[in-house]
Amino acid sequence: MSSSSASDPLPPDLARYGWDEGWQTAFAPFAAQGLIPGRVARVDRGLCDVVTPLGTIRADTALVTPHDPVRIVCTGDWAAVAQGAAEIGHQVRSLLPRRTAVIRSGASRRSEGQVLAANVDTVVIAVSLAVEPDLGRVERFLALAWESGAAPLLVLTKADLATDAELIREDMERIAPRVPVHVVSAAEGEGLDGLRAAIGAGTVLVGQSGVGKSTLANALVGVDAMDVRAIGLDGKGRHTTTTRELLPLPGGRGVLIDTPGLRGVGVIDAAVGLHQVFADIEELAARCRFADCRHDGEPDCAVQQALDDGELSYRRLESHRKLQRENRRMAARTDARVRAEMRRVWKERGRLARAKGNHRE
Ligand SMILES: Nc1nc2c(ncn2[C@@H]2O[C@H](COP(=O)(O)OP(=O)(O)O)[C@@H](O)[C@H]2O)c(=O)[nH]1
Ligand SMILES: [Mg+2]
Ligand SMILES: [Zn+2]
User: Fold this and answer.
1) Is 161 in the pocket of ligand 1 (CB under 6 A)?
2) Does position 258 have pLDDT exceeding 80, yes or no?
3) pLDDT at site 88
4) Considering the domain 12-95 in this protein, what is its CATH number?
5) Which residue's CA is minimally distant from atom 8 of ligand 1?
6) CATH architecture, domain 271-360
């Protein structure tokens, strides 16, 4: 059977999807086995849509479904696919090592993490200007973003509905120093050019449900591309139509991954991310007299001093404590496989950073 479909509107140019020399090198052993490369555009139960040089195909993921949920195929993964004979269907045989992975703790209170997106450079955290923002939640998303290895960017949506956009922007800049903040209105087209210029070649949109992620994705990608649907044949030759989560940006500017609405997001093994988000508090704590100061009435406490001076808010200190507690709890529950995966991601990331000769600060 044909693996691409005449109705598939996507050109088979993987460079548009982020394919580069590094991926090419990582893929070489699989090419030698006759497998084809592809980027995962969407995952369903047991099947995924993969953009390949032959077009978008549906492939079975049974062979890459380990017990560890963090290692399960997700949108943005690069896959080595075996083209199926009619009976067997296409199969994802292996995933290339991820450069970055956006992981949240599972929806339930179990230890498992869930990968929201793989191989992105920018994590866009969408926050609605139409309602009072929950700063603690933003800090949570920031921790997850920093932890992923990609760079966070805050986007304040629905500017057309905002009454105090500037105040909220100031709040964001206070809780997220060094993180770019963009104000946009997808409804009115405001701020979109600036945002387009600021995001990386691989970008994922995260944020609470209803804040306007999908609308923004539409606006950034453009109507034409958003109309793109993964029309193809599944492994058993049936026609399928699904909406992609991974969309090519116009002009070959990379890809955008939209994530489904999240009711909540937990941090998992995010010590590094928390370190980044609360660098100000950690710097203060380093100046306390006691190394193990709990900032709770101890003498010469720099954190208490900052609270008294109004430089640090109680809300933020409490948020830090809360996320640290949560992180410790989750880390303790996280099984060794998840930790091994994170170590591997970090190792790979370090190797790539060294190869590129640049380090993100
Ligand atoms: N006024 C206004 N409404 C918006 C804007 N962006 C999204 N919305 C609305 O907000 C609601 C949720 O948007 P959606 O994109 O589905 O949010 P998601 O859950 O984050 O993907 C929808 O009713 C949108 O029409 C905007 O810029 N301005
Ligand atoms: Mg949505
Ligand atoms: Zn202290």
Assistant:
1) yes
2) yes
3) 75
4) 2.40.50.140
5) 212
6) Orthogonal Bundle (1.10)
* Span 299-335, pLDDT tens digits: 999 999 999 999 999 999 999 999 988 888 777 766 5
Nearest to 191 by CA among 245, 124, 121: 124
Q: Which ligand 1 atom is at minimum distance from the Cα of 186?
A: 27
Domains of the chain: which residue ranges?
12-95, 101-258, 271-360
Tokens (6 digits) for 176: 């997220």
Q: Which ligand is nearest to the CA of 297?
A: 3
d(CA 247, CA 228): 8
Q: Which atom of ligand 1 is nearest to the CA of 188?
A: 27
- Alpha-carbon torsion (77, 200, 194, 102), positive or negative: positive
pLDDT in tens, 55-95: 899 999 988 877 777 778 999 999 999 998 767 789 999 99
Give the per-residue pLDDT at 2: 42
User: What is the rounded average pLDDT of the residues 344-359?
Assistant: 75
Which residue among 124, 161, 215, 259 has the greatest number of ligand 1 atoms within 8 angstroms of its CB, and so is best to mutate?
215
Task: Calculate how far, in angstroms, residue 297's C-alpha sits from the geometric centre of ligand 3.
Answer: 8
Q: CA dist 300 to 250, 284, 303, Å?
A: 56, 11, 9
Q: Is 261 in the pocket of ligand 1 (CB under 6 A)?
A: yes
Q: Give me the numbers of helices (H) and strands (E) for the chain, helices first please.
A: 11, 15
101-258 is classed in which CATH architecture?
A: 3-Layer(aba) Sandwich (3.40)
